[in-house]
């Protein structure tokens, strides 16, 4: 059977700041620099979700793109788009909303929610020059 | 030392997603807008990744002109500005991007000799892309 990988992109905008309460103010400043500004700052994130699966013989589809889009909207974008990640997204009450942690949180939100295909990779671009990949291991 | 080379191509084609084994109602439910009887088109972006040892004499994995010529003759001339449903390649298969992607890979894998074919990536729109790397799957 032919395994095909399908990637769907979406964009969302959110604000965040980096601060670890276990560090001193000076340490936070030194480690996180401008990102430590407590009033936050924002990015236009691009999310790429890659799923893998066998091509269904009858439909020629790996996954229904509409289902995937709806799952991404429901599980990720509705919760994160135009939000202050530190204050409004539960995962970041404790974890620092770095792009790494954001990709892990999105993986956990999507994992198990796909009806047919399997999640292969979550890629989050914070800017056009920086992105993080998570494969769930 | 082995290196991977990716070349990007474009073709515009039309298709209609409609399966002979489904009822009219099931076709409409499964394919939605893509089942419109008159078809619709896309600008497909095709990325072909090949790999091989870098030839010490040329510094190249393979001659790009040879890859371009192969893709031009075997893919772009056939699929470009064509109705995919009307092609012999899609007789009995629905021209979803999944099926186009695996077909392009198989054509390259069978016919292109100067380098190993690693992967075919096909973008149907700015928001979705499909990748096929044969039996072994994507390594990352």
TrEMBL record, chain B:
GO aspect biological process, one term: tetrahydrobiopterin biosynthetic process
Reaction(s) catalysed (UniProt annotation): 7,8-dihydroneopterin 3'-triphosphate + H2O = 6-carboxy-5,6,7,8-tetrahydropterin + triphosphate + acetaldehyde + 2 H(+)
One Pfam family of this chain: PTPS
Gene3D superfamilies listed in its UniProt record: 6-pyruvoyl tetrahydropterin synthase/QueD (3.30.479.10)
UniProt entry tagged with the keyword Zinc: yes
UniProt keyword Lipid metabolism, yes or no: no
Obligatory cofactor(s): Zn(2+)
Keywords: Lyase, Metal-binding, Zinc
PANTHER family: 6-PYRUVOYL TETRAHYDROBIOPTERIN SYNTHASE, PYRUVOYL TETRAHYDROBIOPTERIN SYNTHASE
Family according to the record: Belongs to the PTPS family. QueD subfamily.
The name this protein goes by in its record: 6-carboxy-5,6,7,8-tetrahydropterin synthase
């Amino acid at each position: 059977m032919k395994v095909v990988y399908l990637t769907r992109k979406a964009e969302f905008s959110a604000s965040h700041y980096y601060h670890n309460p276990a560090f001193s103010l000076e340490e936070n400043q030194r480690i996180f620099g401008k990102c430590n500004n407590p009033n936050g700052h924002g990015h236009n994130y691009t999310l790429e979700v890659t799923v893998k699966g066998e091509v269904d013989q009858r439909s020629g589809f790996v996954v229904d793109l509409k289902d995937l889009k709806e799952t991404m909207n429901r599980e990720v974008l509705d919760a994160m788009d135009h939000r202050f990640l530190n204050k409004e997204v539960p995962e970041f009450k404790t974890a620092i909303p770095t792009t790494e942690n954001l990709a892990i949180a999105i993986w956990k939100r999507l994992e198990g929610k796909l009806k047919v295909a399997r999640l292969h990779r979550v890629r989050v671009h914070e800017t056009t020059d920086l992105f993080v990949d998570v494969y769930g291991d | 030392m082995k290196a991977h080379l990716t070349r990007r191509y474009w073709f515009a084609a039309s298709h209609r997603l409609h399966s002979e084994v489904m009822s009219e109602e099931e076709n409409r439910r499964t394919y939605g807008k893509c089942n419109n009887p008159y078809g619709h088109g896309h600008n497909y972006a095709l990325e072909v990744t090949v790999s091989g040892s870098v030839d010490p004499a040329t510094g190249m994995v393979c001659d790009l002109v040879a890859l371009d010529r192969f893709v031009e003759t075997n893919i772009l001339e056939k699929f470009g500005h064509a109705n995919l449903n009307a092609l012999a390649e899609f007789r009995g298969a629905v021209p979803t991007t999944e099926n186009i992607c695996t077909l392009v890979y198989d054509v390259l894998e069978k016919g292109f000799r100067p380098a190993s074919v690693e992967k075919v990536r096909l973008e149907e729109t700015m928001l979705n892309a499909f990748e096929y790397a044969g039996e072994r799957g994507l390594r990352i």
